Amino acid sequence: MGALAKRALLTFFGIPLVVALVMTLVDSYRRRGKKPKPFPTDPPGDVQIGDGSVRTYTYGQHLYDDMLDAIASAKEQILFESYIWKGDEVGERFKRALTEAAGRGVEVYAIYDGFANLVVAPRFKQFGPRLRVLEYPVYSAGWRFFDIRRYGRDHRKILVVDDRVGFVGGYNIGTAYATEWRDTHVRITGPGVWDLKRAFADFWNLNRGSRNGGRPLLLETASDWEPRIRMHRNIPRLWIFPIRAMYLEAINRAYKHVLMTQAYFVPDSDFVEALMAAAQRGVDVRLLVPETSNHVVADWLSRGYYAELLASGVRIFRYQGAMVHAKTATIDGRWSTVGTANIDRLSMTGNYEINVEFIDPEMAAQMERVFATDLGNARELTREEWENRGVHRKFTELVLAPLRPFL
Length: 407
Hints:
Layout: H1 3-31, E1 45-49, E2 52-57, H2 60-72, E3 77-82, H3 89-103, E4 107-113, E5 131-136, E6 158-161, E7 165-169, H4 175-179, E8 181-182, E9 185-188, H5 192-207, E10 229-234, H6 242-253, E11 257-262, H7 269-280, E12 284-290, H8 296-303, H9 306-312, E13 315-319, E14 323-324, E15 327-331, E16 335-339, H10 345-349, E17 353-359, H11 361-375, E18 378-381, H12 383-387, H13 391-400
Helix pairs in contact: 2-3, 6-7
């Protein structure tokens, strides 16, 4: 590569990176001391599916109360996994609950992501000998520098207690998430719990190495499953990414409506085209995103797709006053998903993720109620408003555009 080509390449990517860094620093400064506004939520809603049930949470405190109750009642085994596990009041409550469970003879396994918790005090990460804890390493490639399969983060959030109850969704563990973030999580009972157990065990066994004595996590779970509840897992180490395909297949089959909530919406061209095609064939496509998320660069990258989506008939709503961190969708009154994966490259083809797919009309109705409540705290972005945005905004979107394939 010639010197001129190298300089051009450096300019093409270097300028957007500098702009993104400056924007992040400025946004961080502006946020200091600011608290989000209160937002409407639904109480936990229960739906019966087969031999089990699904409870949907839209408020962190309600979720944490039920998770801690489940941990307190554990008799045999607890499997706990969180991308972020803050060392604050809520984080300490979970650590104490897990420690107490181990103390009374419950087998306790815990996983957290090392990179996501770099700012957590080292003291918090010291656990008693009875807890089997796996810190997914900040750098896991070892000498395989060029093996991109080993750079994904563990972005999953799972709790399974015995064989009777499992939790999965978008909520991390921390005090702010209990009351200040709008997220979505589900509690599952019945056969669906077994697939959550397998998801945890497979990750533990794939990444345990010599930690915890190198012992594999062996599960005795039934081979049966609930066909209306399916777990989809992205596993970068094995080059498996089913969640993107799950979304695209569901959107391509839509004939009535697509209601989607996404914290960070930076889709690839196939995803954009699927939403546009649905809208153009008469499907009511509604996308709910934060007005302002906790990642300002993701917000700007997301806006780069608004013009073509709005032109095709997709309706975009922006959540007001607080961070909506949910990763959910419901389609045609029959299909829904709740999980950890964002619609961006990092989640779709990068990180370890897990989404639950529900094919059940009652669950879809529950998710439609949640979406309607969220719309009550959102403002619709019109095509005219978007086209009339300032020149400086259009210029910023253009400058940041080269970063879209990487986020």
